[in-house]
Every structure is written in structure tokens, then in C-alpha cells.
Amino acid sequence: MSASGTDRSPTPSSRTVIVVGGGIVGLSCAWLLQRRGHRVLLIDPVLGSESSQDTATGASRAALGVLMGQVFHRSHGRGWQLRQRSLELWKSWNQSLASRGRPIAHRSGLLLLAQDGPDLERQQTLLADRQRLGLPLSAWSLDQLNAMAPPLPAQAVGGLFSPEDGQIDPLQALEALHSDAAAAGLTSLSESVTNLEPRRRGIGWQVRLQDGRVLEAEWLVLAAGIGSQSLLAGLEGQRESGSGGRAGPPLRLEPVLGQALELEVEASVAQAIGQAAPDHNGSDATPGWPGVVVWHGLCLVPRPDLPGGRRLWLGSSLEPGSEPSPEALQGLRTLAGAAPDWLLRARVVRQWQGLRPRPVGRPAPLLECLAPGLLLASGHYRNGVLLAPASAEWVMQQVEASP
Predict the structure, then answer these.
(1) Distance (Å, rounded) from C-alpha 363 to C-alpha 146?
(2) Which CATH fold topology does 108-166+255-358 show?
(3) What pLDDT does 120 receive?
(4) Residue among 84, 64, 137 nearest 315 (CA)
(5) How high is the pLDDT of residue 284?
């Protein structure tokens, strides 16, 4: 297994670590560190609660779990590298979890639709670049799209298919990581953290809880999403740059809200979606969907595993602020005005929303060493589920590189 795998002996020098934030990024950090032999305490007020996906406001519990790694618009830089590494890690992580009876549902395949001529040209350029890298993307013609059932948006002029992208169930991922880490000795607290400060004696950090308790550890990992900003507000004078120089600019995270819908489609539609789709080369096309379909930034995620076998997730909007917009929800429901009739006829089973932290003035995500022993893993405003493994690996590398 890779260097960040978990089927290995504990590290020779285990550390005490507090992870603040129980979303997919925080849980990934806690799971990886605990499985590698460190002593980890995970703190989040929603741990162990009965809150459902319908009412949750956190980004992870409102995520669709779409993995868009190889169709990412860039082919270099940190964002590209994190995506490719995370796709690799999700495969090995799921194998590790499944071997202990905690598999996560994974659906391969993602079809990115082109909206117009310029969009199609961008896809063709992206395809040529991916082929140079040896990645198995393929272009789908308009004839291939028209052969699919149920029909896609009529405005689509082509598509780009990525067999190695796809979707994982975010709630299953949260449960699997938490239970597997707990089996390895992870300690969890369902509490709110009110304050962070360096240890008064020795190296490390301490957190103050809402109930007044103060807990200490050698390392503190802050993965509290939008809440990270308030927790760091009192530390501006003590923060360092990642290279150990002067303090960086103040951290600013703005809330971005995403709304999503679960739909129940007609039985004939569900059956058509589940039929065999065109192969990766587009030959011998038959009706069906190859996996997740993305149109105008909105994702259609087949969920035949949900009750009734006729469910489809539709999401998500990307709205500034923390208040949901009825107009944005309507745009989502109509697929930005391009929804086929079968989609408009679908029944809304439920809707949900979540707040995501978007960094201001910095590229997402924020993976920074703010001070000795203090790590920030936040700002995953659109790709938290996808980037969680690579983010956790970065955290692990910082902890294990320390003397």
C-alpha cells in the first residue's frame, strides 16, 4: 500500500493530535492519523447526534459526493495534483475499509456535457491534453448523446466521458471512516470548541470547550469549515507563514450555500437510466447513462440503491451567503432551463442545503501550517469529498515529519 496507507505498524514516534471538525476532511484526517498509530481526539458538536442529511447545515452532510478529478479544467498545479492523488487514495482507502466490513458505495463514470460550440472546443483541448497524459477520457458525439435514454438536455452539443471519475456516498463515507477509526482507538467528543491557544508549558496546543474543559495535544488540526475563521480570530498575532516567517494575511472564509434535491423519477425512466450505456469508445451505443451527468455545473446523480430504486440526486447550486435563494432552487429544479420533460415530471422527495467555506484571496483548499503544531485544512468549498484523502495525507506528512 502507498505511503499514506493504513495497513502497517504504528509509527515509531506516535503523536497526540486533536482534530477539530467532524466533516469529511476532519474525519479523513482523524482516520488516517489514528490508523497510522497516532493518538487522536476528534471534536465536533454533531458527532453522535441524530441530525439527518435533511436538516444538516455542514458541507459534508449536504454533499453529493461527486468526484470530478480527471475532467478538472487544469492539467498542472496544486489543484490538479491534489485531485489525482485523491482519486488514487479513495480507491486504496475503500479497499482498506471494505476489508474490515465498512465499504463505501462508489459509482464510476462521469459525463460532462458541452453547452455550446466554445464549450465543446474547450473539451476537445482538454481531451487532447488528457490523452497525452495517458488518461482514459473519450469524446462523445451528439449522435451518441441523442441515443441515450432518458434524454439529456436538448441543448447539449457533445460530451466528455471520464470513466475514473464518478461519485461516492458522502454519508456512508462519514460513517465508515468514523466507525473504522473508533475501532482503532479514536476518541470522539460531541462538544463545541470556543478557544484555541498554545500550551503554556512545552510544545503543543490546547482547546477550550464550551463546557469549560481544556484539552491539550502536541498537534492541533483545524478542519472546522466555515467555523475555522472564528476559532483563528484570536491567534492572528501568533500565526506564522507556512515557511516559518512572518504571519500571513488574516484568514477570510466566506460562506457559500449549496442546495440539492432528491427526486423520484418514473419507473420507466429509472429502468432506462440503469440500462447498459455506450462503451468508453462510443461504439455499439445503447440507451442508458454512464454514471453522473453534469450540465452547466449541475450534477445529476443516479441513486438506484436508495428506497424504491427510482431516486436521482440533483445538485447543487452555488450561492453567496448563508440564506437559500428560491430563484437558485428554481434554476436547479429546471436544470438552468434545460430540464427534459421526464425530469420536470419527477417528484421532489426532499431537499437539503449546506454551507461551504470559500477562501477569500487564496486558492482553495487551505492546507497551511499556521504555527508550530497548528495545521489548517479548510476552504474545500466545492470539492471536500474529492479532496479529503489528499488533504489528510498532507496533514499526516506534516505530523510525521516533525522531530
Answers:
(1) 38
(2) D-Amino Acid Oxidase; Chain A, domain 2 (3.30.9)
(3) 97
(4) 64
(5) 43
